[in-house]
Amino acid sequence: MEAESEPYVRLATMRQLHQAVADLNTARSLADTLQTVADGIVTGLGYELGCVNLVRPDGDLVIAAFAGNAAAEALITGRVGSRASWERRLSMGEAWDQLRFIPHTEGWVLLDDDVPQWHTEGPEPRFEDEWHPLDRLYAPMYASGGGRDLLGVISVDRPRNGRRPGAWGREALQMYASQAAIAISNARLRANMQRALVRLEREQQALRASEESFRQAFEYAPSGMAIAEMGGDQHGRLLRTNDALCRLLGRPASVLRRYSFADLVHPEDIGTLLRTSAEGGRAELRLSRRDGTYLWVSLRNSVVADTADGPRFLLTHVEDIEERKRHELNLAHRASHDALTGLPNSAELKSRIGARLCERPHSPAATAIEALDAAYGDVESLLTHSYQADGYEGEAVPAGGLYDHHVHALAPDAEHDDGTKGLAVLFCDLDGFKSINDRFGHHTGDAVLIEVARRLCTCVRDGDTVARLGGDEFVVLADGLGAADAADLAVRLRNAIIPPIRVDGRAVRVGASFGIGWAECGMSVEEVLRSADQRMYVEKRSRSKVHRRAG
Fold first, then answer.
1. Distance between alpha carbon 451 and the CA centroid of its chain, in Å?
2. Residue 453: its pLDDT value, please?
3. What is the phi-psi region of residue 225: left when phi exceeds 0, alpha when psi lies from -120 to 50, beta otherwise?
4. Is the CB of residue 120 less than 8 Å from the CB of residue 105?
5. Residue 114 and residue 117: Cα distance in Å, rounded?
6. How many angstroms separate the CA atoms of 137 and 170, rounded?
7. 325: exposed, middle or buried (C-beta count within 10 Å: 0-12, 13-18, 19+)?
8. C-alpha to C-alpha distance for 325 and 322, rounded to whole angstroms
9. 286: number of CA atoms within 13 Å, CB side?
10. Tens of pLDDT along 382-401?
11. Going by C-beta distance under 8 Å and a sequence separation of 6 or more, which residues neighbour residue 10?
12. Buried b / exposed e across 180-198, counting CB within 10 Å, b at 16+?
């Protein structure tokens, strides 16, 4: 069944996983985080029972949180299973990537070991993938940092659909276990930091011991950390920074103490920083380095409060996410741009044209009264029209509203210049390019395409678009042009392409044929491009082959 409804399963699973992971960030303490992890298994991942087994300092695992059955929670929460028994479980059964599934046909040997367990009787499975009451599924949680230090184990039971999880269900559980491990580690770190800071203020006699504990946790943290002032004239000023943050920003600690994050943040991200500083929480923004460049970071604030005096400090974790951001931007760019020339690709071109078009053709108004009617609806009907307001009953407002703020794209008259400006679509096809590819190879052909793209870009204005449709076809979008302007632009573009192009010491030439079309409301994107393409072929056939040859 899961394969038949795969798109729905993927969407539903991702939504549930997103909500469950989002809930992890709302917990305020380690205990709340552990319980939130267990609750997320039941409410977000579709299992009836969820249990969080946490590794203790001595290596054994204690049941730290349980969800789904109050009787079971009261019976086994706080009970301990030995590390050896758990390692045996995690080496049995079937490995589903990092998950471990032990079917009932193998799990019966575990009934008498010292790991606390709870299961309910049920009917024998009728189908091959049906869940058996004695089936076991475990999701190990490992500490961050790339190692294999076991942090704990999530155990789940009784999927609500009665079947063993499919590929997406397994992936969701594995991703959730990874995020849960991060949340538990962060909760432990925040708890340690908050306790250290409170002791620093309240327990003067234990100052040296607590300062040393805090110093080690702060200084040796793998991510950047800072303590900032809250309130008063020095609000936001950095009081202390660790070595990781100094290396990240390329500034010594003595220099950073002169700044606040507001002095270092990118101007476009100042609003995000202020909201995060005021409310606590997480934000992604850019901080300046010593060399003047900006670095993408994930910034998380925790407000350290004093019971008597209220908020006192802001504890900030700063994580370098530059590589991830660069990867995201690169993926977005690759999806919308041509890999060879770097120009917008066909999909991006169609998106930009489509953004200027609407489905309703534009009809120029003959008179001033008709122009008003076109913009605001018929005046007479507006005067007699009644609306549902203050108890009066009326008709519905027409679709699109009374006010249409869309600026319609128009096509100038090619024969009579009436001053109309429009969005010109110049379709370019290179002449003689195939012979260059055939004679000199694709390496030379690629070099020619790259140079043609560069020349086209130098001839257009900022805001105009030069795109590559594919092969040797290019399209230029230029808004605000009349018919004569577009013809002049086509001449300039053709003249820019004609000069010889040197590739590996060899000079080659290509020509270009241009067709000028216009994007006009009421047309589809395909119709706009087809019109320009057809005019290009008309122009190509109208010129003799001698004038078109190149190479």
1. 33
2. 95
3. beta
4. no
5. 9
6. 10
7. middle
8. 5
9. 14
10. 444 433 434 434 444 444 44
11. 168
12. bbbbbbbbebbeebbebbb
116 closest CA partner among 60, 168, 165 = 60
Identify the sign of the CA torsion 338, 340, 343, 346. negative
Q: Report which secondary-structure segment, H or E, holds 8.
A: helix 6-24
What six digits make up the tokens of 405?
């703020």
How many whole angstroms separate alpha carbon 493 and alpha carbon 536?
Answer: 14
pTM of the model: 0.44
Instruction: Quick: pLDDT tens for 141-169.
Output: 998 766 678 999 999 988 888 888 888 88
Cβ(81)–Cβ(53) under 8 Å?
Answer: yes
Q: Which amino acid is at 174?
A: Q
Strand partners, 438: none
If we measure between CA atoms, which residue out of 474, 488, 447 comes closest to residue 533?
A: 474
The secondary structure of 73-135 as a DSSP string is HHHHTT-EE-HHHHHHHTTSSEEETTEEEE-HHHHGGGTTSSS-------PPPSSTTBPPTT-
Cα–Cα distance for residue pair 94/225, rounded to 1 Å: 41
Asked if 468 contacts 457 with a C-beta cutoff of 8 angstroms, the reply is no
pLDDT of residue 145: 66
How far apart CA 60 and CA 54 sit, in angstroms, is 8
Three-state secondary structure readout of 452-506 = HHHHHHHCCCECEEEEEEECCEEEEEEEEECHHHHHHHHHHHHHHHCCCEEECCE
Confidence label for 100 from pLDDT (cuts 50, 70 and 90): very high
Residue 163, amino acid: R
Q: To the nearest 10°, report the CA torsion of 324, 327, 329, 335.
A: -140
**176-214 confidence digits (pLDDT tens):** 888 888 888 888 888 888 777 776 666 666 556 666 776
Q: What pLDDT score does 58 carry? A: 92
Tokens linked to 242: 């660790």
Phi then psi dihedrals of residue 299, to 5 deg? -115, 125
Q: Other C-beta atoms within 10 Å of 116: how many?
A: 19
- Start-to-end Cα distance in the chain: 60
What are 93's strand-pairing partners? none
* pLDDT at residue 391, rounded to an integer: 40
Q: Quote the pLDDT of residue 80.
A: 93
Burial class (CB in 10 A: 0-12, 13-18, 19+), 104: middle
Question: What is the rounded CA–CA span in Å between residue 339 and residue 317?
Answer: 37
- pLDDT mean over 510-524: 92
